[in-house]
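Dear colleague,

Thank you for sharing your sequence with our group. We've completed the structure prediction you requested, and as agreed, I am returning the results in plain text so they can be pasted directly into your records. Please verify that the sequence below matches your submission; if there's any discrepancy, let me know and we will rerun it promptly.
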Amino acid sequence: MKPILSLITIFCCILFSSCHKKHDEPGKEDDAIHRTVLVYMVADNTLGDAYCDNSDLQEMLAAAKADKLNGGRLLVYHNRPGTGFGKAPQLLEITKEGSVVIKEYPNDPAIYSVDPARIKEVIADTKKLAPAKDYGLVLWSHADGWLEHEGDYSSRSFGDDRKKHITLPGLAKALEKNYFSFIYFDCCLMGNIEVAYELRRLTPVIVASPTELPIDGMPYDENVECFFANGEPNMLNAAYNTYKHYANGNRDPYCQMVVINTDQLDALASASRSILAKVNTYPTDDEISGIQKYSIDARCWSYDMKQYFELISGKGSTYPAWESAFNSTIAAAHSTPLGIWNLKIHTYNGLGSFIISSPSDITYRGYNNCAWYKDVVSASPIYKGK
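Please find the predicted structure tokens below.
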């Protein structure tokens, strides 16, 4: 009997060793990991100079130590301040024991974290090093919705890596062929129809703000638990936590948040086309002045979308279908009475929209490059452009 027992013992040891190795090896599928969340932190800018990245990393560590990862894995791509001075970007894993560097990227100042190739590389690394059943994405940096400057990497839509940025269409292209259980914009001014529509195929839910947010951003110590909830991530609570963080006596009591159901955006686009197809005149300055602003720029580029479509539809026969589609798109919307710079919020329906008020607005800051313009706004006879 001894030889048989020895063979069984050896077999069990090999089997245990094999299973243990499979669990530890990067890139092997691990059914126990239900979700990996990547925080893409572009911080080589004024946010990093103000140590906002370090503050948020500490909040993530606090959440991990409090067992809020729920068996998931939290990775942070950290584009650190000082890239041009030898501080190469790192891919970190936030664990209960602390922060671990799992990859360091080439120390080449000519490579920017807003380069589509770098974004794709980091997502591929995340899936290889922390495989899971699904993935969540947090985009952390400065942002300006869909606004562009000249050129691609020097444009301003998302991210700020040493004054380099990526356009909204460029971001969508960089993220294509990936699917995330959520996309949370921990940055300003991304809660508008142009952004949501551009990214609608990448995720079922987007959380963002149509206005500027205080520099502290979201409370990661509260929201990490929402990201790793059993089943679907709890993005309603994540948005509410951020709103509550500022509404409940914070030194910066300014916050507007929206949760967007992206599977309703095609219906909203169809209803919007029906209204825009009948728009033959530009709205007047007086008419626009009655619509809630979501930005304080001299040329405001984000207004309350629902009020805008109430105006151009005249609340006629096409409006009820549009309102139904809009209400289905907005899962939640929260607002304090004021926005940053004491922007008064009289009306808040959650989603911003650009208003074309003259022919030159069609190409203003690259608006005609947005999918929302191409697919929807251009249905108007006067908004087609040349």
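Summary note from our side: The chain has 13 helices and 15 strands.

Kind regards,
the structure core
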